[in-house]
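Next comes this protein.

***
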Amino acid sequence: MTDVSRHLHLNAFLMNTGHHEAAWRHEVSRPERAHSARHFIELAQIAERGKLDSIFFADGVAVRGNVRHNTQGGLDPLAILNAVATHTEHIGLIATVSTSFHAPFTVARAFATLDHLSGGRAGWNIVTSGTEAEAQNYNLDKHYDHGERYRRAAEFVELTQKLWDSWEDDALVIDKSTGLYAETAKIHEVAHRGEFYSVRGPLTTPRSPQGRPVLVQAGSSEDGKEFAAQYAEAIFTAWQTLGEAQDFYSDIKARAVRHGRDPRLLKVLPGIVPVLGSTEAEAKRLEAELEELLVWDYGLAQLSGMLTVPLTHDHLDVAVSDLDLPDESEINGNKSRFTLVRDLGRREGLTVRQVIARLGGGRGHRTFTGTPEQVADTLQHWFEDGAADGFNVMPPLQPSLLEAFVDTVVPILQERGLFRREYEGATLRDRFGLPRPESQYAVAPSTTLDSAPSEGGFAGRRVPAPVSA
């Protein structure tokens, strides 16, 4: 495990043309490249030039109503990252995959494959998904209840860990002289039977360079925080104020301790949307240009979804505090984003129009407009004052503001001794200062495979598999 405790961590959250809702309309934007492999490869190479820890792609598995006024992601993030892996050498590759709509075996194999192909740079952003439209694309009439989604996710993650561990590190022998390719005594059935899943195993893929890809999570509801404290190694979160971020940071670290974990091995990365200019006036001009391109119909649809109430043009100048909003307990979708947006409007006395403008940059993540020095100052302040271990950098306009961050903010952080000048180690775990986990089957009895084939492929001695830590 590499000691990187004195450095902050920087992940680039990449979205098509940028995180600002009107980015695709800006004169420097090229939205026609949003479905091009070359576009994402170039963004990854920019981030790698800045020595960033990782890049990250979100995902949604339903066409949103806002497609009329904004670019859609559309492409499979794992497929994008497999292409990016062949054109980069160091940067971590994090993809979002939902536990609600996929099979654990398929997900375990896909991430093990990415880890192999990238030389140990894979990370999985675990989501439970939050919309009925997504559920209806996967043979469901409605989505699972919020609590059930997280129970499913917990079993899903523990099962994928078993599958990643099912080949011990030294199971591959590859001895041409004896004809022994793999030691079947070190390849294990997982024999999993749980509340939601039944999987025999083992995985078809030998253990990958990291042992297990890095686990990332992005929910801040009560269920989400408990899940993160138990399983996540990095957390993407959204906070508007230093105080809120500090409260979350101390809370999630304390929860990790209660789960018997070292809190230093859980990295908290709040989102930051940096609108950069060589002067403060220049940055504010760019911010105004982007806000001028907002489509109010689109903003109303977005906010309606976040607050789960129908909003029209008649509501634009109504205070959020005057809206008839549901209680948080009634929300079955993204609880944490509902709470953040509701509290932002009430705390600052904002109208619906003002909230839409504020959310235009990053959908609830903190937008900071200023010079490279001012952005570096705020990152350092949050990092040193117990609010963050690093940041989920969300360029509002790409590639221009990703390049600006890499070329102007990163050198300041490096000069201050806050960020690496060169990559340490070889894997994403090395970047984050995380240990490489040992296979749970290397130290506990389990079902192993022997050399005699059977109807199922192998004959093995069945012994209860260990429970994942």
Notes: Residues 146-165 form the longest helix (20 residues).
